[in-house]
Specification:
Number of domains: 3
Largest sheet: 3 strands, antiparallel
Strand order of the largest sheet: 3-2-5
Distance between the termini: 159 Å
CATH architecture of the largest domain: 2-Layer Sandwich
Order of helices and strands: HEEEEEEEHHHHEHHH
Radius of gyration: 54 Å
Number of strands: 8
CATH superfamily of the largest domain: Band 7 domain
Number of helices: 8
Shape: rod-shaped
CATH class of the largest domain: Alpha Beta
Length: about 300
Amino acid sequence: MFALFFIFFLLFIILIVIGSTLYVVRQQSVAIIERFGRYQGVASSGIHVRMPFGIDKIAARIQLRLLQSEIVVETKTKDNVFVTLNIATQYRVNELNVTDAYYKLMRPEAQIKSYIEDALRSSVPKLTLDELFEKKDEIALEVQHQVAEEMSTYGYLIVKTLITKVEPDAEVKQSMNEINAAQRKRVAAQELANADKIKIVTAAEAEAEKDRLHGVGIAQQRKAIVDGLAESIQELKLANVGMTEEQIMSILLTNQYLDTLNQFAAAGNQTLFLPSKPDGVEDIRTQVLSALKAK
């Protein structure tokens, strides 16, 4: 009975020893192994064996995956505008320099933040607010290079640094929006004024063209009347009716006068201005004869 108990006890001790010597490292991570507090080596992913009873100890498990740190930095531009910058930094441990990443740096995220703040506060004050918006990608790249150079000595790789947001002071932001709105209103007013100008010029040109065509029509109408009277006189003279030109003109003018009265009445007009003297028609006849002779 005692022998059986001893065998079980021995098996239990063996299992404890085996359990304390075996350990597993997960994928995309490494384990720092120390022996009596001194660095012994780095174990990659998989199952491993170590010295039992705490002789070999897993000091830390280091992640090799990509990490991201969100940082908020407040600084001032060249034109004395305070801005808040949101920075996203992606970094990871260098697989070839895991020992430096663990032993040289206690708080890597805080150290990265300090380097980024220092780099931004030396770069942003050289630019105005407008230039900061335009060149934020260039600034992010410059900061990335500076921080990557510093962090490489501690076993960290800076993969990407992005300026995700540039937020000026609330009053400055409101002023910028008001300036932009005023500029847009001024452009809109100019466009409306130009449109009104085009309408006025176009209407004036149309009115001038209308008057010109109306004058041409009147001139052509009068010319046709004179030509018609001349032809009528010539026909009557050829017909040997025994009348002078003045008599023939009087007859034609009288007919023209009566035709005009008929047209005036047919148009529904009720007011007619006639010569104040009896010799008014004679004046018209004299003018028409002068026009015929001049022709």
